[in-house]
């Protein structure tokens, strides 16, 4: 009887044949997914002929599908997904009514995916609103707008792919498996009936009294027993065979996915290593035309190892062989490019090293030559006698020129063509001296009306030079005096010609650079002169870069680049604008100088009475102190725009007018940025590095109201009817709110300070450009309007300028985010639904 009990459990009242072809038509199906409280999911997909299905047939289908899980778990709940995205409200209403009338199980929830077309969606919303109470009395119904809403009720891994899930389900495989299970159940049922009949026969048979009858009965029962044993053995072997096949299929499935998982892990590690090596090599390629960042041999060896590993994965039949080989080709291309570039650079550096060794001796001679030319007074050379004396000094000095400088420039260019810059190829110290000699000979041959120079200059020291001002002592300064910086020669030559406006420009620039040159050599370099090393205070030696800032960079920029560019404008002054535009980026050296100026001034006030500075000023015979010469770069920066404006007056309608206008705008923008950055240095109370916020784009004072704040609200802010006066600093990455403070006390610095109050990151900032009632107001909101600030500009023009800069920042952020959209999709593994059906066997 135990056998009968067992086989009654595996049989079901309905079979796949009894429900006709509706299961094959996929009117409804069990995917194996589970919802809330382990509720079984029954899916009713899109079916154009759903309304034609008889009510009895639908009831049989639902009964059949619910009996499968209920055979194992009697009290199980069910969730129905009714997909009607391509249907109508009428179809939805009919389907819900049929489900309510014929569903045999414990229905927990009905999730309806409503139509997606605008018209049908609207009709469905209206119809469901009026019919909702009727359905809710029979069963809980939820109307969903999209598949995304479905994920709020059912986890992604419990949904099939048609609903955006990851559950693997094949309806045809399910039918085959279910048919096999039911066929087996019928076979078991038949055998069980045969066993039951045989057992009944044995129990009810009366034993005969005759021996022959007993023998026949014994033979009959034995034969039946043997036939039943054969059937049981066949069933046993069949089960074992099926289990063996299932085991082999499962082992094959596991091996396949285990291998795929291992290969995915290998690919993930390979991709991570590839990106590390790629990021390491890419900067080298981008800088290949200029220089290479320090690159270790092991970095290239690492790339080679990556290539070998990639080929090993490809040989092992990796599923991503195409991607791996592509990565290998990219690394090989980068490796070959870098190897070639490094070889070229190595040869170039070797040649450069040889040239620099030859230039060491020439460099000292060049320093002395520039010093000699810089200290020849222009006014004393106006007379014939003075010109002859200067001429003899130069000719005598030229006799000691090193061999390298006496070699023709064309020979140098041929020998060191790959390492010489265009500036060095075009100008040598010899050309500088030749220019001065020609000018002095001209003065010695004819009388020229003397002219008094007004700009500061370097006076000529006594004939017997003091060691304090000798260029012979060693120096470790960042200042590099190259042969092409013939400052006094150019200014002197321009002054002698005297009639061309371009020459006047060269004269002004030459005098300015003489001032800078003398300041650096007469003060900065003398701080390292071992003869007078005891005069400067010890703690001042380490603060030399603070006192002079980046004045050496300014000097090198003008001497190496800008003055040479201006030489080409002597005949056509209107082309000066192109020179300014070409060197627009180089003028940023003035930004750093101006930003450092407050620190320099503070240091000068501390050490202005130092005997070292007084001695330097006395030897240079300067009437003004060092602080006046440290101010020259800032004064020069403000005069560039005046020079360009003056040129525009006389060049209206000329060929280079547009370049002059562009240069003027660039210089005005530079002045504005320098002014803004000078204000930035006065910010106090900010915890962090202001440099991380990017450049200062705008700054100015505004009226500010705190308009709204979500969450806990500070009553002090809401009760503030009067605006706050705030000074705003717009950086590339943040917006700072500060309060301006002016110290009017005795001896106070006239420069205001700004107390930091608040900071908004530009990545979370939004703007409302227009506010009713005041055209000068605009709105800045932060973190989805968690913080809102109403800002009133002093003028409409100021408002428009700020909005324009903020829009640029926000637009650039959007472009940057689009550029970072690289995504490596993870590989997914799907377990088969076989295990789900095995649980019911």
Number of helices: 28
- Mass-distribution shape: elongated
Largest sheet: 8 strands, mixed
Supply Rg: 46 Å
- Unreliably modeled segments: 1-12, 287-293, 421-428, 447-501, 711-716, 822-841
How many DSSP E strands? 13
Intertermini distance: 20 Å
Mean pLDDT: 77
Strands ordered across the widest β-sheet:
6-10-9-8-7-13-12-11
Name the structural class: alpha/beta
Estimate the strand proportion. 5-15%
Helix coverage percent of residues?
55-70%
Organism: Denticeps clupeoides (denticle herring)
Family: Belongs to the MCF2 family.
Pfam families: CRAL_TRIO_2, RhoGEF, SOS1_NGEF_PH, Spectrin_5
GO biological process, one term: dendrite development
Task: Please specify the SSE layout and strand pairing.
Blueprint: H1 2-10, E1 29-34, E2 40-44, H2 55-70, E3 77-83, H3 89-102, E4 106-113, H4 118-138, E5 141-144, H5 147-150, H6 171-204, H7 211-286, H8 297-315, H9 321-374, H10 384-398, H11 403-406, H12 409-415, H13 422-426, H14 429-445, H15 487-497, H16 501-524, H17 538-541, H18 544-548, H19 551-567, H20 576-582, H21 589-607, H22 611-620, H23 626-630, H24 632-650, H25 657-680, E6 683-684, E7 696-709, H26 715-718, E8 724-731, E9 734-741, E10 753-761, E11 765-768, E12 777-782, E13 787-792, H27 796-819, H28 834-838
Parallel strand pairs: 2-3, 3-4, 4-5, 6-10
Antiparallel strand pairs: 1-2, 7-8, 7-13, 8-9, 9-10, 11-12, 12-13
Helix pairs in contact: 1-6, 3-4, 6-7, 7-8, 7-9, 8-9, 10-14, 14-15, 15-16, 16-19, 20-25, 21-25, 24-25
């Amino acid at each position: 009887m135990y056998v009968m009990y067992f086989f009654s459990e595996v049989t079901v009242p309905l079979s796949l044949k009894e429900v006709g072809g509706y299961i094959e038509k996929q009117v409804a199906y069990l995917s194996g997914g589970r919802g809330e409280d382990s509720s079984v999911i029954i899916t009713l997909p899109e079916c154009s002929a759903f309304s034609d299905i008889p009510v009895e047939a639908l009831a049989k289908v639902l009964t059949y599908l619910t009996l499968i899980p209920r055979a194992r778990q009697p009290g199980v709940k069910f969730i129905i997904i009714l997909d009607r995205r391509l249907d109508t409200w009428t179809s939805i209403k009919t389907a819900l009514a049929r489900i309510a009338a014929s569903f045999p199980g414990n229905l927990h929830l009905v999730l309806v995916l409503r139509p997606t077309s605008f018209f049908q969606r609207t009709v469905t919303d209206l119809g469901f609103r009026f019919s909702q109470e009727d359905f809710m009395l029979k069963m809980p119904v939820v109307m969903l707008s999209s598949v995304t809403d479905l994920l709020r009720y059912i986890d992604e891994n419990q949904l099939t792919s048609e609903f955006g899930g990851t559950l693997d389900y094949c309806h045809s495989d399910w039918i085959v498996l279910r048919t096999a299970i039911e066929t087996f159940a019928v076979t078991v049922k038949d055998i069980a009936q045969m066993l039951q009949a045989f057992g009944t026969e044995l129990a009810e048979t009366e034993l005969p009294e005759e021996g022959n009858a007993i023998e026949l009965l014994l033979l009959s029962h034995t034969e039946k027993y043997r036939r039943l044993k054969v059937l049981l053995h066949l069933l046993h072997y069949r089960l074992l065979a099926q289990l063996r096949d299932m085991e082999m299929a499962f082992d094959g499935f596991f091996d396949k996915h285990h291998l795929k998982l291992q290969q995915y892990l290998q690919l993930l590690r390979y991709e991570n290593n590839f990106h590390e090596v790629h990021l390491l090599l890419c900067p080298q390629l981008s800088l290949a035309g200029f220089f290479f960042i320090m690159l270790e041999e092991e970095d290239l060896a690492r790339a080679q190892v990556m290539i070998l590993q990639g080929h090993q994965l490809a040989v092992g039949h990796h599923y991503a062989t195409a991607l791996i080989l592509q990565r290998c080709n990219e690394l090989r291309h980068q490796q070959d490019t870098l190897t070639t570039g490094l070889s070229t650079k190595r040869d170039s550096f070797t040649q450069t090293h040889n040239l620099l060794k030859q230039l060491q001796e020439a460099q000292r001679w060049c320093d002395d030559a520039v010093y000699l030319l810089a200290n020849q007074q222009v006014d004393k050379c106006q007379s014939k006698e003075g010109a002859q004396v200067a001429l003899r000094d130069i000719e005598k000095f030229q006799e000691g020129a090193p061999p390298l400088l006496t070699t023709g420039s064309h020979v140098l260019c041929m020998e060191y063509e790959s390492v010489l810059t265009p500036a060095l190829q075009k100008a040598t110290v010899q050309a500088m001296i030749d220019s001065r000699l020609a000018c002095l000979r001209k003065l010695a041959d004819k009388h020229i009306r003397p002219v008094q120079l007004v700009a500061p200059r370097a006076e000529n020291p006594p004939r017997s030079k003091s060691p304090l001002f000798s260029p012979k002592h060693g120096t470790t300064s960042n200042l590099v005096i190259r042969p092409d910086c013939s400052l006094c020669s150019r200014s002197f030559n321009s002054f002698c010609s005297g009639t061309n406006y371009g020459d006047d420009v060269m004269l002004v620039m030459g005098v300015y650079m003489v001032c800078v040159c003398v300041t650096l050599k007469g003060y900065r370099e003398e701080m390292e002169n071992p003869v007078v090393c005891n005069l400067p205070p010890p703690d001042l030696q380490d603060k030399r870069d603070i006192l002079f800032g980046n004045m050496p960079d300014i000097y090198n920029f003008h001497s190496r680049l800008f003055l040479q560019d201006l030489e080409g404008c002597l005949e056509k002054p209107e082309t000066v604008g192109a020179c300014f535009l070409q060197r627009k980026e180089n003028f940023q050296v003035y930004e750093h100088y101006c930003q450092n100026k407050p620190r320099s001034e503070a240091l000068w006030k501390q050490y202005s009475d130092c005997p070292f500075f007084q001695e330097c000023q006395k030897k240079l015979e300067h009437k003004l102190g060092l602080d006046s010469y440290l101010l020259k770069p800032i004064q020069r920066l403000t005069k560039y725009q005046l020079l360009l404006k003056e040129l525009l007056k006389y060049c209206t309608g000329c060929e280079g007018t547009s370049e002059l206008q562009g240069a003027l705008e660039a210089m005005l923008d530079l002045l504005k940025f320098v002014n803004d950055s000078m204000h930035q240095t006065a910010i106090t109370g900010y915890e962090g590095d202001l440099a991380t916020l990017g450049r200062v784009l705008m700054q100015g004072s505004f009226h500010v109201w705190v308009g709204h704040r979500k969450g806990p609200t500070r009553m002090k802010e809401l009760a503030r009817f009067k605006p706050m006066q705030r000074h705003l600093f717009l950086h590339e990455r943040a917006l700072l709110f500060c309060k301006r403070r002016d110290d009017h006390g005795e001896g106070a610095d006239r420069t205001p300070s700004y107390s930091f109050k608040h900071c908004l990151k530009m990545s979370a900032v939004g703007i409302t450009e227009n506010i009713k009632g005041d055209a000068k107001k605009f709105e800045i909101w932060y973190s989805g309007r968690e913080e809102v600030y109403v800002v009133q500009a002093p003028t409409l023009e100021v408002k428009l300028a700020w909005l324009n800069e903020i829009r640029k920042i926000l637009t650039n952020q959007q472009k940057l985010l689009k550029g970072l959209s690289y995504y490596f999709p993870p590989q997914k593994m799907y377990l088969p639904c076989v295990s789900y059906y095995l649980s019911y066997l």
